[in-house]
Design a protein that fits this description.
Aspartate Aminotransferase, domain 2, Aspartate Aminotransferase, domain 1, globular, alpha/beta, 377 residues, PyrdxlP-dep_Trfase (chains A, B, C, D), aminotransferase (chains A, B, C, D), alanine-glyoxylate transaminase activity (chains A, B, C, D), Alanine--glyoxylate aminotransferase family protein (chains A, B, C, D)
Amino acid sequence: MHVGPVTIDYDILVAGLRGDTGFTSQEFIDAMSFSLKYLRKLMGADETYQPFIIPGGGTSAMESVASVLRRGDKVLVVSNGVFGDRWKAIFNRYSVAVDVLKANPGEYVKPEEVEKAVEEEKYSLVTMTHVETSTGVKEPIGEVTKRIRDKVDLIAVDGVSSVGAETVKAKDNQVDIYLTASQKAIGVPPGAGLLVLSERAVSRLSEESVAGYYLNLKNWVDVMRNLEEGKGSYFATLPVHLIFMLVKAFELMEREGLENRIKRHERVAKGIRAGIESMGLDIVARKPEAYSNTVTGVIVKKANPSEVLKAVVSEGLELAPGVHPALAGKYFRIGHMGWVNPNDAVTTIAVLERVLKRMGEPINLGEGVRAVQNTLA
Amino acid sequence: MHVGPVTIDYDILVAGLRGDTGFTSQEFIDAMSFSLKYLRKLMGADETYQPFIIPGGGTSAMESVASVLRRGDKVLVVSNGVFGDRWKAIFNRYSVAVDVLKANPGEYVKPEEVEKAVEEEKYSLVTMTHVETSTGVKEPIGEVTKRIRDKVDLIAVDGVSSVGAETVKAKDNQVDIYLTASQKAIGVPPGAGLLVLSERAVSRLSEESVAGYYLNLKNWVDVMRNLEEGKGSYFATLPVHLIFMLVKAFELMEREGLENRIKRHERVAKGIRAGIESMGLDIVARKPEAYSNTVTGVIVKKANPSEVLKAVVSEGLELAPGVHPALAGKYFRIGHMGWVNPNDAVTTIAVLERVLKRMGEPINLGEGVRAVQNTLA
Amino acid sequence: MHVGPVTIDYDILVAGLRGDTGFTSQEFIDAMSFSLKYLRKLMGADETYQPFIIPGGGTSAMESVASVLRRGDKVLVVSNGVFGDRWKAIFNRYSVAVDVLKANPGEYVKPEEVEKAVEEEKYSLVTMTHVETSTGVKEPIGEVTKRIRDKVDLIAVDGVSSVGAETVKAKDNQVDIYLTASQKAIGVPPGAGLLVLSERAVSRLSEESVAGYYLNLKNWVDVMRNLEEGKGSYFATLPVHLIFMLVKAFELMEREGLENRIKRHERVAKGIRAGIESMGLDIVARKPEAYSNTVTGVIVKKANPSEVLKAVVSEGLELAPGVHPALAGKYFRIGHMGWVNPNDAVTTIAVLERVLKRMGEPINLGEGVRAVQNTLA
Amino acid sequence: MHVGPVTIDYDILVAGLRGDTGFTSQEFIDAMSFSLKYLRKLMGADETYQPFIIPGGGTSAMESVASVLRRGDKVLVVSNGVFGDRWKAIFNRYSVAVDVLKANPGEYVKPEEVEKAVEEEKYSLVTMTHVETSTGVKEPIGEVTKRIRDKVDLIAVDGVSSVGAETVKAKDNQVDIYLTASQKAIGVPPGAGLLVLSERAVSRLSEESVAGYYLNLKNWVDVMRNLEEGKGSYFATLPVHLIFMLVKAFELMEREGLENRIKRHERVAKGIRAGIESMGLDIVARKPEAYSNTVTGVIVKKANPSEVLKAVVSEGLELAPGVHPALAGKYFRIGHMGWVNPNDAVTTIAVLERVLKRMGEPINLGEGVRAVQNTLA
């Protein structure tokens, strides 16, 4: 129950056991073609969007967004925590201007605040974080884009902790760039960033962009088009073995159905929150509308979060540390994405009950798991 | 017999079958610690060098060298082909000046030419390519550094097609940055760039560098130090599963012995060249001192190289296309690195004999393999 | 939570990924040597016992016991259920006389009953079943052997559902033949029977035995001795890949410690029984002293056991059908052996609570898991 | 290039990576159903034949043939070597009479000799060995059955080293029992015996047979019928994980086509024999009509065969020892079955050339591989 790499199904891992598959092999080309096509579906995009699968992960995918910026462009960063702030840290390395709208920990920047900001200033790009991994807070992407779509040039959304577990509608919400990483709700090892770009975003790729070389989408766009069409193509070496795992993950997704997959995540998340609350602990996300399907921050009262993380490992559970500086030392995170199921919700709460009780939290053993059971019945 | 990803030993691939290992787990931290330490040994570096293992591959590792450059720095690129030229393409995206010394295809830039260039101009950085993957040509790194060491600030060497198969002496040759990628002579899937930096190079990492964010080694240096010391640390998600494979590859290397490993590569390379020459074909590298242990370019006479690549696949052999523009349509490449052995040399030549004869090359069936056998006896 | 093949750790499964290991390879010989030596330890045997690892499973290991019998021998079978009765079915195929002592379902044959039987008749062999897989009932082996040891020739114990999860003392209890199968509490795929034979039992192996060929231990004894000494040896092909998995399982056992392993099984079994009882359901084994660490039979009231088995599969849980004819249609079995842990106890009861409630059992949701939690606290 | 377990394709091995699949799971039942049906096709049998897949291997499958015999039956064993003699050793353990027709090493019993024998005596069963693994000699099954079919009750053929690599026609040749093992030309790890029985053979299964329990096909026949029809069924635990590998192997066979598969084996065998002969060495099988597609015995002149076996291992090649007592110390065996391809023929001969020359054989380096190349051109 980590936030990433998440627990991975062995059927996916073994799909990468390819001893001698080069990047020019037809099997690899076919695997990329399938993955690129499926990525559109996963992102709620259509044929007008260009999919990209590039080496790296979430941060490199975010930095590749610089490919659409030119010297002097203005960017508005809508930040709900550590990974929202990361957009700013990235753009600060380039010759662009960055403004930031910042939410209190556990809250999200309100759609009307974003609207106000884009009315006061003309931005080339607005970035948002669908689910902020540091707090588990979800931004209402659709409500924001409805208000700002006509007032900004490009909109980019970091879907690292949402794609594959939350409803994602690149096209309907008119998002220009939606991105994620392989090791989160897709449930594959780390090693790739995945993006879709609208036609408008693709048209911004040019020699004049501020981007560097490896993460410059201009260098990758023809490779992606060729591979999707079944033709070998090379710019830099792609993570060949990971792509075969991605194909397997996408096949499992398709078999489950994307809607069923999202409902499964909802069910597990609901169970976990019910268990946490019935133990008398606080959730970092302050209001139900900010809850996400993928990450739950848990504020402890008496226990030391880093001691909790160590103790649960010996009970067969892996959790993630809290990383939001404003809540340092006060919380830990439960990741519930990828191949999680209701049994994981039960187990997670059962282990936490026992461990937290031992650490002095006023737990009534059995109350947490009962609450989970009630949500699952 | 591809140039990369190369054929990978299954013991290495299965080392990555880790269903639930997060980046905060002790197993992962230990794996990174071991790998970083071993990387120094592999590079012929000592404790004064800082090792890095970062997501991506060869090109991203090359781009991360921008971390030591500042606005206005002058760089000399010593290029023997496509991947030499890539250094220039990378630095052109940054505010630095780039001069290039270029060799004819199949040749390498002579040490005295490099010496002359650095005497005429003061360079912050000179880059070289140990083995040029596009042609299989090896640059005599030690001879160059002897001549230029005192006349330039920093020296960086792309060891993508050499590290693990050729003698690499970062320390003895006073190279400041030696880099490679996981999927070449190390014999692991693609997904990581590996570098060592001298103290001088590390001292250049700063807020003022021209580098971006993800590939900026300043953002990674503390993470690498912490992980080597066995402490969890995070900047961006590392390719967790790949690192476990890297550990296995390094363990196998250690069991074989680095010198034995290089001799094995030499033996296979010699066998392959003997086979090629006895078939009456030309090798792209023009002189024996330019031969490498890892890549052999083969110039065909009557056959169409891309047809050869297709035909050998149905005989169970995978080769790589020629990519040097000056030799377009005239050659293909044999990669012989990683876990290759003398039997691979025999098989490769045997398949080529049969396929090339069918395609009209004047082959005397059996002469190629006999030549291989004679080198192996 | 099946009774076998049980859920298997992937580290064990991947240990069998050996593409080209023949039965004459040193790796295989070493793997057999290690496994045979470790088998003695696992069985509580000493150097005077001869270990055997032969193809097949529990039933073939039982039949191989015919290797110590001669025409006209008398055998006493102590049967607590289906697999006790199997001893009789086997011996009936040979020219020996068989008497059976039979317990009521859920009970075991009392030590004093066995004592009485062996006082009335002279038996060459008495067979017992340590844990009867069909009911989960444990026979008190030590108490029986204490009473009968001096009155019978040979004692054989079927430890199929006990070895690796219950205290097994071949030597201390003076058992002549202790046997098990790979796919039960050892936690390896099915494919091998494992036995230890006392010197007395080995001395009975002869041309005159009633046994056939493949399962005749006389044909295997020299092979086992040679392999243990590191020498290649052949009678019939051993399950090479499985042996590498067995080595891994034994290494994991050694790392855990055999006593810790038994305690872990006890803890899980106790948790499961607490959950079952707090749901108001009956356990097949009628008294606590008959409880086993490995199998729990559960008698349902309103639900149809075969419907329960189907329903839990869709909740990610696999259980085993009841097979005792006297309880046909009344119960199902929970296997809790191999690599089970307390989280499995929680999950099993949580799924059962939800499924059984849906099927009309008078379950108070949360009571079962609370009971498990209390035993684990 | 071992005679078994042979080198196994990793796609087959990884198909066995099933962590939690019990014998009652639908996946396993489906896997058995598919495998049983495919086995008929592989054996050249039709719907009138009953397929069996039982634990063990070749020897246990041979012993299971006792299921069709009754006390006092007469059996004729047609033996071309060690595994022919094994039929006699097996039947000697049962109350049946056994006559043996024996060929000189390297030869096979002539069809007319068998005909003569069955005319002189009435036999309930005649057994033959399609390819004798100890010598690589092939018996002309069709020619024998044509002559004897009407004169004997049942005919059983050991196809251990033929099924999957030689033309097998159970139906057309009116063979009643054709058997093989998983680890030979099928190319799966050891662990299962596979048989088809004609209606006549099935009708002989009865309580009165001389067979024991585990290898008594009467105990398995309903299980096989149920599993083929998709219904769970149990007698003793089947090698669940191996069955998933078998499915994969059968799928790969189907993709290749059985005829193509046999041609591939022929091509490799021919290449190997050409290499051996051009090195001036003798083949154990004395005449071309006795050559098999799967095993070649090689008689050396100066080298010590057991030293050869050790030496080739360090060159990456695994061969098998000679086991025919009449040729003790004079030969070794090359297995060429399963997933072998022409490159294996080249490699095998190349390694042998180098190793045997070193050991004093009068080898002209390169002649062997040239001969292989000529057969492959």
